Amino acid sequence: MSTLTRPAEVATASPGRRPSPRRPGRRGARKGLFFALPFLLGFLATYVVPIGYAFSQSLYEKKSSGLGFGPTRVVFTGFANFSSVLADGAFWSSMLRTLAFGTVQLTVMLGLSLLLALLLDGVAARAVRFFRAALLIPYVVPAVVSTVMWLFLYSPTGSPLLDMAHSAGADIDFFGGLNTYLSLGNLLTWQGVGFNMILISAALQALPRELYEAARLDGAREWRIAWSIKIPNITGILVLTGMFSLIGRLQLFAEPLLLRQIAPESINTDFTPMMEIYDKAFKTGNYQYAAAESLILAVVTGIIAFVFYRVTNRKMS
Question: Which residues contact 162 (CB under 8 A, 6 or more apart)?
Fold first, then answer.
């Protein structure tokens, strides 16, 4: 007697396509995107949208009707503002001035930071923590507060430094000519030397101590160990701090703007590119031209940072 096979049994017996399991990688990617969503929204709101708005504003220009007595109109002019900025001698002079000043000031600041980090690398751990905290205080103080403090120290009417100099029979002028750059450089170095020292010191602490012991067994002195072992092994952090500091110098604004209160003849309105942009936007009222200047400054800063990084990395390799 033949046994009839049920359709369900046939479907069970015949090899069929199994349902594909869920991919855990896709679920993990969704979770990661969900956690990164607040940052992405903040980045979009604080960077992408303002840059897009600045670009849209830079395509327009204010023009007055008649002989200049009529109402102003905002008209579309395309890339006319960018062409004007590229031919603006005051803007590019401020850019070159800031680059030249930043090159010298950053060399001094990073050199002092490296020297302090090397000195602290050979000190006891308890003393290192104390000096790190003490040298980091100027960086923790807001830039405006520290600038106002140095503004008082540089003031020709109530500066205790000038009082001590006058008591010693010396006549000191903190502004005028080269002294303007020295005073501003002293302020910026005081602000940033502690932070860069912390980064360099952390890189030194990560180096294996066996290298130092082997060098000491070979008769190397501490200065030789620092020059031949420590510094070559922390060039990465030196390049990184140099690049970030260079970007910060091209965006220099608050410190010279406040120092201008006591030295308007030495620090003019286009002393730095950011001061030039501020003057065009909030004093002249030409927001469209200031938007074009800010975008060109951002592009130039990115190009300089990229070139600096590539050149220094090529020398390191």
Answer: 155, 156, 172
Residue 219, SS3 per DSSP:
coil
At 234, which amino acid appears?
I
CA angle, 171 as apex, 168 and 175 as ends, to 5°? 135
Q: How far apart are CA 210 and CA 167, in angstroms?
A: 54
Report which secondary-structure segment, H or E, holds 73. strand 72-76
Quote the CA–CA distance of 94 and 113 in Å, as a whole number: 27
pTM above 0.85, yes or no: no
Rg of the chain on CA atoms, in Å: 30
C-alpha to C-alpha distance for 214 and 196, rounded to whole angstroms: 28
- Using the structure block, give the residue that is written with the tokens 């070979």: 218
Distance from C-alpha of 212 to C-alpha of 209, rounded to nearest angstrom: 5
93/158 Cα distance (integer angstroms):
33
From residue 265, alpha-carbon distances to 173, 219, 268 in Å are 13, 57, 7
- For residues 45 and 50, what is the distance between their CA atoms, to the nearest angstrom? 7
Backbone angles phi, psi at 19, to 5 degrees: -65, 135
Distance from C-alpha of 214 to C-alpha of 201, rounded to nearest angstrom = 21
Give me the pLDDT at residue 22, please. Answer: 54
Single out the residue of 235, 226, 242 nearest to residue 192, CA to CA. Answer: 242
Q: What is the mean pLDDT of each run of 10 residues along the chain (317 residues)?
A: 48 51 67 87 92 94 70 87 94 95 94 92 70 83 90 86 84 87 94 92 88 84 87 90 91 93 90 94 92 95 90 70
In 3-state terms, what secondary structure has residue 230? helix
Torsion from C-alpha of 118, 122, 128, 131, nearest 10 degrees: -50
| Contact yes or no for 94/275 (Cβ under 8 A) | yes
